[in-house]
Prior knowledge:
Shape: globular
Strand order of the largest sheet: 3-2-1-4-5-10-7
Radius of gyration: 20 Å
Structural class: alpha/beta
Number of strands: 10
CATH topology of the domain at 3-143 and 169-197 and 251-262: Rossmann fold
CATH superfamily of the domain at 3-143 and 169-197 and 251-262: Vaccinia Virus protein VP39
Helix content: 40-55%
CATH architecture of the domain at 3-143 and 169-197 and 251-262: 3-Layer(aba) Sandwich
Amino acid sequence: MTDHEIEVERLTLEAEVWRSEAEALVALAGPAPTARCLDACCGPLGALEVLAAAAPNGEVVGLDADASLVDDARGAAEARGLGNVSVVLDDLLEYHPDELFDVVYMRFAPVTVGRPAREMMDAVRRLCRPGGSVLLQEPFGAFHYAGAPSGGLEKLLALATVAYRAEGVDLHAGKRLAARVSQAGITEVVERRARLALPPGHPYLRLPVMLAEGLREAILDLGTVTGDDLDALVEIAEHQAAAPRLRATTFELVGVAGRVPVMARFAADRLELTHPAVPA
């Protein structure tokens, strides 16, 4: 498969694997059936179907900066009959819709470290109307395999974690998620944590392989393994993932729900009225 096909396979699988947790997090927000919802960085599916079901008489917008993923998401929405879903090609930091959203959801943000992470958090808050809900999910920890040898899978996951970190993506971002949300001025923060038990044969057991295939060049750039060594490690990990007794517990998915305060926007508007800008 191409790199794009590998990425779509992984992201679509994760959307299905974590669907119940997305549903639980959206339920905490309790959107009205007519709510206007945004799935920021939706990828090929994200939580579009979950949000569409939660707001059947509302509007769901998927947003992604990757044109190929936008096409995939549009195809998925059509195939699943999601008539209240549209997908927009735009950068989250540059996106300025005509109307704010009642719910803004984002899972596994592609940039979760440093200044870009703060800018993304500010953008999520900006796109949510006062009194609306912000819903975020990030991973924390690692897979725990049992029942059969898993050294190859664990080594691939470690390499992927380091390669992601070098690109500004933190696979342990869930550890600080609630604090970051609060620092962004979002209130009424509630945290939800979950792990999943994967039985033998579950396709998500292959996550380290999918990550390594998608991050191949980034892993080789680390200089810790050669191309031949990485290929051999992937082959070993594939055999291990297919072992009839291998099972696993996933990383912890940390979900955070909060609200954009109404008074903060009111205070800002009042300050602008009482202290208008002085012309240059």
